[in-house]
Specification:
The relative contact order is 0.13. Helix 5 (142-157) packs across helix 6 (173-180) and helix 5 crosses helix 7 (184-196). The protein has helices at 12-19, 76-81, 102-111, 113-139, 142-157, 173-180, 184-196, 212-219; strands at residues 22-27, 32-34, 42-48, 51-56, 62-68, 73-74, 88-91, 95-101, 159-161, 164-167, 200-203, 206-209. Strand 9 and strand 10 form a beta hairpin. With 220 residues, the chain is an alpha+beta fold. The strands form three sheets. Strands 1-8-3-6 form a four-stranded antiparallel β-sheet. Strands 2-7-4-5 form a four-stranded antiparallel β-sheet. A four-stranded antiparallel β-sheet has the order 9-10-12-11. It binds adenosine-3',5'-cyclic-monophosphate (CMP). Adenosine-3',5'-cyclic-monophosphate binds next to strand 5, helix 2 and helix 4. InterPro entries: cNMP-bd_CS, cNMP-bd_dom, cNMP-bd_dom_sf, Env_Response_Regulators, HTH_CRP, RmlC-like_jellyroll, WH-like_DNA-bd_sf, WH_DNA-bd_sf.
Length: 220
């Protein structure tokens, strides 16, 4: 539990107490963990694997809100505001989750205020990302939309190396399109153009942003 940001700065006694309130469960790839609009009273922490958070638009198009990785949590919104699930959550690979029931999570927040502070920090981070996403969806042209989506992925899961940022596993083009609010063809065209302009280099499923500072300056 020590490595989970939500529980950082807690001592061993607190971690042991919290561990007793959680159940570990393994989900196969492509398993629907949460369904939009359903009632729910459990929250989840990712121990290993990846989970896609998405909604389906009125026209039936999938909109990817985020791809969460180990150490991240989800399912907290319904617990906090008592409303139905705000999005779908689907495993992208075999994934191990910790499940916490509503009453236990509320007790943890009450007994360990540091967890509440860590939770609020992450919610602030997610709100900032959503603000960026709104700005990019409403204001930018195709290249800007794709570039700011790549920046979001780089900031979440990129590896920094001497001014470069490497995204080890770029999501499939259709997923990128759904994240950027554009088409698969546009993704392919823009990534090619970004390559020709010297901003990025693609090596298989890896994408390298060659000068991160310049990329950010030009596209955010
Ligand atoms: P809940 O509404 O209970 O169920 C769906 C979950 O998806 C939600 O809680 C959050 O944990 C997660 N979620 C919803 N929107 C976002 C977002 N924009 N970024 C990351 N996670 C999200």
């Amino acid at each position: 539990l020590k490595t989970i940001p939500l529980f950082s700065e807690l001592d061993d006694d607190a971690l042991n107490d919290i561990a007793r309130m959680m159940v570990r469960q393994t989900y196969k790839k492509d398993n629907m963990v949460l369904i939009e609009e359903e009632v729910g009273s459990t929250m989840f922490i990712i121990l290993s694997g990846r989970v896609k958070i998405s909604r389906i638009s009125d026209e039936g198009r999938e909109v990817i809100l985020s791809i969460l990785v180990d150490g991240d949590f989800f399912g907290e919104m319904s617990i906090l505001d008592g409303q139905t699930r705000s999005a779908n959550a689907v495993t992208l690979e075999d994934t191990e989750l910790l499940l916490i029931h509503r009453e236990n999570f509320l007790r943890i927040l009450h007994d360990y205020p540091q967890v509440a502070i860590n939770l609020l920090k992450e919610l602030a981070h997610r709100l900032r990302r959503s603000d960026e996403q709104i700005k990019s969806l409403s204001l930018q042209n195709a290249m800007g939309k794709v570039a700011s989506t790549l920046l979001r992925i780089a900031d979440d899961s990129g590896i920094i190396k001497q001014g470069q940022v490497e995204i080890p596993q770029l999501p499939p083009q259709q997923d990128l399109a759904n994240m950027a609010g554009t088409s698969r063809e546009t993704i392919s065209r823009v990534i090619k153009s970004l390559g020709q302009l010297g901003y990025v280099k693609k090596e298989g499923s890896k994408l390298i942003i060659l000068d991160y500072d310049k990329f950010r300056e030009d596209f955010s």
